[in-house]
Structure to design on (485 residues):
């Protein structure tokens, strides 16, 4: 759903940015503006990757550990990393989808670049700026907490005396607090009673529910064991992001950076570890087949780091080709240009692999699904939904497009949540909802069976309404009935 004008989501920074984009951008509909914003943040992420690799390569060149001539002053590996990031399948998909993840990736890459610049220039203002950005990034997505170890390590290993000065620590804490205070937007927006007042964060209980994302913790009860850990590792799908043979360059890149710059090697290794294995350990995500694609969106920083490692690996191969070639005979500029062109073609293989699948410029399935479904039912109708894939298109059609405002769309599982039940009571007053106690946080008993109770109540107390299930919700309902028998 892209209608941030109507929804107070528990992702403050993203919501604020999208509110500005939706309000000020004078092109397309709301869905188009949201997708365009994701594409912009995806492009900015790629730009940051380019500058990160260029900065590292220029440092290696200045230290005499890399050849400016061989890698064209660092531009070749930087361009390779940027192209590999651009054509990674999951990064590409999220760059054409209205979601928070490309903004999250951009902020993480921006912080990495700020660290590298500070390491060179030692101007404490870069650390202050990074503290503000890091606060905002935590206000955008909790995954940013995984980057805390690498930022602390890099800052302290570079110049711990400068960082631990009292006045500098004070500024770092104040600016970080200023950034994360973006969460104050949630209760302020909630007070205005938007159509979708997610968790009602104007109350303290609702605010904690939102920022802790308690709604999504039910699937994390399964303990982490070796079998589940291996299945989660399999979700990474490294070779699907780039060509299979390209992936193996990443190991060569690890070796190259280990030899040439140990501090950067450790820094990038921590980022890689924390955004992959670290996320699995902390979040312990579920592994059912139907949410593989959703889980992979959390690994965008991991895929980006592997694109960077691959670029370092290709740089290592190019350096050795040039060295061995030079021992045989002098390498002319024209001949070397052809060699570089061959290696620059490597990311193009990913483009060719993924273009047809992720060119969704003419894909209107979600909109057509919502429009056809909403317009196929009469007035006084209730449509029960189960997942985001059948709920969000209908919400978008109803709230953002302002169509079929009379239609009641009830997410069955979310109806168990007090804030959502209270919203149904407020938004659809003509529907009889008999259990007002369900709208309060202190009445959470029978939470697991509430959806069935509410569905039954709606049908029993509203005989003049007609009730419909989407195909997904109907399949789940029939499955539960079969199991109970």
């Amino acid at each position: 759903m892209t209608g941030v004008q109507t929804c107070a989501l528990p992702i403050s920074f993203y919501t604020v940015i999208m509110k500005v984009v939706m309000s000020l951008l004078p092109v397309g509909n709301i869905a188009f503006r949201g997708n365009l914003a994701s594409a912009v943040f995806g492009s900015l992420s790629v730009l940051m990757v380019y500058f990160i690799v260029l900065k590292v390569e220029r440092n290696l060149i200045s230290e005499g550990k890399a050849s400016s001539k061989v890698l064209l002053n660092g531009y070749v590996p930087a361009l390779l990393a940027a192209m590999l990031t651009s054509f990674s399948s999951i990064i590409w998909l999220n760059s054409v989808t209205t979601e928070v993840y490309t903004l999250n990736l951009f902020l993480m890459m921006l912080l990495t670049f700020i660290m590298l610049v500070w390491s060179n220039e030692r101007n404490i203002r870069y650390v202050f700026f990074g503290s503000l950005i890091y606060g905002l990034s935590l206000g955008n997505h909790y995954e940013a907490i995984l980057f805390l170890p690498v930022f602390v390590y890099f800052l302290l290993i570079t110049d711990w005396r400068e960082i631990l000065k009292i006045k500098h620590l004070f500024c770092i804490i104040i600016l970080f607090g200023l950034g994360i205070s973006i969460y104050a937007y949630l209760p302020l927006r909630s007070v205005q009673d938007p159509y979708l007042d997610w968790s009602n964060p104007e109350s303290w209980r609702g605010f904690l529910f939102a920022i802790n994302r308690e709604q999504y913790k039910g699937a994390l009860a399964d303990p982490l064991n070796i079998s589940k850990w291996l299945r989660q590792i399999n979700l990474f799908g490294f070779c699907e992001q780039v060509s299979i043979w390209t992936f193996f360059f990443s190991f060569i890149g690890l070796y190259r950076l280990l030899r040439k710059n140990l501090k950067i090697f450790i820094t990038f290794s921590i980022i890689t570890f924390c955004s992959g294995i670290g996320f699995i350990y902390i979040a312990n995500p579920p592994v059912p087949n139907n949410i593989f694609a959703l889980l992979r969106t959390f690994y965008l920083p991991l895929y980006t780091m592997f694109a960077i490692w691959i670029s370092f690996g290709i740089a290592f191969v190019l350096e050795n080709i040039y060295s061995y070639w030079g021992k045989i005979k002098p390498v002319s500029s024209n001949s070397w240009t052809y060699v570089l062109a061959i290696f620059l073609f490597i990311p193009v293989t990913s483009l060719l692999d993924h273009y047809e699948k992720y060119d969704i410029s003419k894909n209107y399935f979600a909109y057509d699904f919502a429009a056809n479904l909403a317009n196929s039912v009469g007035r006084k109708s209730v449509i029960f939904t189960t997942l985001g894939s059948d709920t969000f298109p209908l919400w978008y059609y109803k709230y953002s497009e302002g169509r079929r405002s009379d239609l009641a769309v009830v997410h069955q599982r979310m109806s168990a949540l007090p804030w959502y039940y209270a919203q149904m009571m407020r938004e659809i007053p003509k529907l009889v909802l008999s259990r007002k106690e369900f709208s309060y946080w202190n009445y959470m008993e029978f939470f697991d069976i509430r959806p069935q109770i509410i569905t039954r109540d709606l049908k029993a107390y509203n005989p003049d309404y007609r009730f419909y299930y989407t195909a997904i919700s109907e399949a789940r309902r029939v499955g539960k009935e079969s199991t109970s028998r």
The radius of gyration is 26 Å. Strands lie at 381-385, 408-411, 466-469. The CA atoms of residues 163 and 426 lie 51 Å apart.
